[in-house]
Design goal:
TPR_rpt, TPR repeat, mainly alpha, 0% strand
């Protein structure tokens, strides 16, 4: 059973300004004095300090962090007790993620000027980022004492005590806050969660009951109570509160998502699906909410509680409700890809692109499907269009190049590779892929030296690229060049990939060219045993090797098998007719 919760209680209560989890360092009110010991500084020192401080602020605003830090350091050389210079340096270190330096400077600034609330706020934020939640809470405790009516400070103090796992102190602070602003759902939910962490579920229930008593017609409160009963294993009371929501608000869509989760936990998948359908049909819920729920439930297709037919039904509902929402096409496509219905998936992505061509992600998925379908004409034309729209997306050139290669547009493939390499940057994997396409295009154009060099380049970039080693070894053997190198590469490849029929065939063919026919026979037979027996080229090679070993009748049998399989060499019929080995010029 794969239960995925979709929280019923989405938005709660009053916004209490900003909370303690803010990552922004507060900006202080400009101090009246920029030096802390003005009477101890000479006039020249004061003037220099003022000048440097203003310049430091300027550099900080311009984003010149290192310059600003250097200038504020000089300020501290003039006045080692300048809290404001420490503050400015501390905030710079904070922004630069040097939390240790930030903490040291801000702690000292607070020691020098303990009544400056901005210094305290900044130090608390640094403590929070360092996960020193107790220390951060203690700072807000000081701030609350300085400004007892500041609700933001009190709220931040409560949140931080909770993060520090000082749950009772957090609850006490929330209670103080509640006395000042009255019953508040955000505070009650926070207290509920704290009581649950303290293993006091009765008090957690009391908090939500207080909300219900304060506003008996608010469905979200019943949703909270239902979810809490469900989390405590009380399915009877959970269902009672979910049903209460439907009594109060029959058109409520969220409750159907909650009931879908409830019935899934109970193992009643039919009822769960019915409630999911009701939620999808609900007009009060927006498309975003439904799509979010759908994505949560189908994120792991192999663990989904729904069948493919049920997913189809939900998608049909979404499409009927939001026919102009392009996201539906993308969602349909994703569902079909998971079912390996690639052609249908591509059709839906095409519908998306027909109305909106601006999403690179959709283009990429669309092109990858064409590649998987080996629809080279579509991949070629569509990748050209995508490149016009997204010329800086270097990966598009790889797809465009492979399509050109498959369509035997070799000169164009080389141009595409050249252009793609200008955008590849530091993407080594892409550079390798483009170099492989360069090698293949050059080989097809009979630019043998360029092809071999391109494969050498690939191996330099990736010394363990077995495909490049295999192809280089094969092309060297076909060209009768540097057979020692071909043998070294071929041997390394089959040692690492002993069950790959293509690699075994290459090594066998290198050995054949080196006239080591007995060892060649061993490797070609290994290739055939590992899935190569249906490959005409491999079977023909087997016949060639047998012929050289004097097994002429067996060789002719293998040649005939290769002919029946198709895709053998152009001289294969002649070999059979003349009962002799003839070297092919095809490769």
């Amino acid at each position: 059973m794969n239960v995925k919760k979709f929280g019923y209680f989405v938005v709660l209560g009053l916004a209490l300004a900003s909370c303690a989890t803010s990552k922004q360092v507060a900006t202080p009110v400009a101090p009246e004095k920029t030096t802390s010991r003005e009477t101890l500084l000479t006039e020249d020192q004061k003037n220099e300090f003022e000048y440097l401080f203003i310049e430091g602020i300027k550099q900080k605003k311009l984003g010149n962090v290192s310059n600003a830090v250097s200038i504020f350091s000089r300020c501290l050389e003039i006045d080692p007790q300048s809290a404001v210079a420490m503050y400015e340096m501390g905030t710079l270190h904070y922004a630069n993620k040097d939390l240790t330096s930030a903490a040291l400077l801000l702690e000292k600034a607070n020691t020098i000027e303990p009544q400056n609330k901005w210094y305290k706020i900044s130090l608390a934020q640094v403590y929070q980022q360092r996960r020193q939640f107790s220390e951060a809470a203690a700072i807000y405790d000081q701030l609350v004492k300085m400004e007892p009516d500041n609700m933001e400070f009190m709220y931040s103090k409560a949140v931080l005590y909770g993060m520090a796992e000082n749950y009772q102190e957090a609850i006490d602070t929330y209670n103080q806050l509640e006395k000042q602003i009255g019953l508040n759902d955000q505070i009650s939910v926070a207290k509920q969660n704290l009581y649950l962490k303290m293993n006091q579920p009765d008090k957690a229930f009391e908090e939500i009951q207080r909300l219900i008593d304060s506003n008996p017609t608010e469905p979200q409160y019943y949703g909270l109570m239902a979810e809490m009963y469900q989390s405590q294993g009380d399915s009877v009371n959970a269902l009672k509160y979910y049903q209460k929501i439907l009594e109060i608000d029959p058109g409520n869509g969220f409750v159907h998502f909650s009931l879908a989760g409830y019935y899934t936990e109970q193992g009643d998948f039919d009822k769960a699906f019915e409630h999911a359908k009701l939620a999808f049909q609900n007009d009060e819920l927006d498309a975003d909410t439904k799509i979010q729920y759908y994505m949560m439930q189908t994120a792991q297709a192999d663990k989904s509680d729904w069948t493919d037919a049920q997913i189809d039904e939900l998608l049909d509902i979404l499409h009927d409700k939001y026919p102009d929402d392009n996201r539906m096409f993308a969602i349909y496509a994703d569902h079909l890809v998971r079912q390996n219905k690639l052609a249908e998936a591509r059709d839906y992505l095409k519908k998306y692109l027909d109305s909106d061509k601006s999403s690179f992600e959709i283009w990429w998925q669309y092109l990858l499907i064409s590649n998987d379908l080996q629809d080279w004409n579509a991949l070629y034309s569509d990748s050209n269009e995508a490149i016009e729209l997204f010329p800086n997306q270097s990966a598009l050139y790889a797809l465009n190049a492979v399509a050109a290669l498959q369509l035997e547009k070799y000169e164009e493939a080389l141009k595409i590779v050249d252009e793609g390499e200008t955008y590849a940057g530091d993407n080594v994997n892409l550079k390798i892929q483009l170099a492989i396409y360069r090698a293949e295009a050059n080989y097809k154009l009979k630019h043998i030296d360029e092809a071999l060099q391109a494969y050498e380049d690939v191996i330099k970039m990736d010394p363990e690229n077995f495909m490049a080693m295999n192809n280089l070894a094969y092309y060297l053997s076909v060209q009768n060049r540097n057979l020692d190198k071909a043998e070294r590469f071929g041997n390394k490849v089959v040692q690492a990939n002993p069950n790959n029929p293509t690699y075994l065939d290459t090594y066998a063919w290198v050995l054949f060219k080196r006239k080591d026919y007995s060892l060649a026979k061993f490797y070609i037979e290994s290739a055939l045993e590992n899935g190569g027996s249906d490959n005409a080229v491999l079977v023909e090679h087997y016949g060639d090797i047998l012929f050289m070993l004097g097994e002429k009748n067996k060789a002719v049998e293998e040649w005939k098998k290769a002919l029946d399989l198709g895709d053998g060499s152009s001289v294969l019929p002649q070999k059979i007719k003349e009962l002799r080995y003839i070297e092919s010029t095809d490769e």
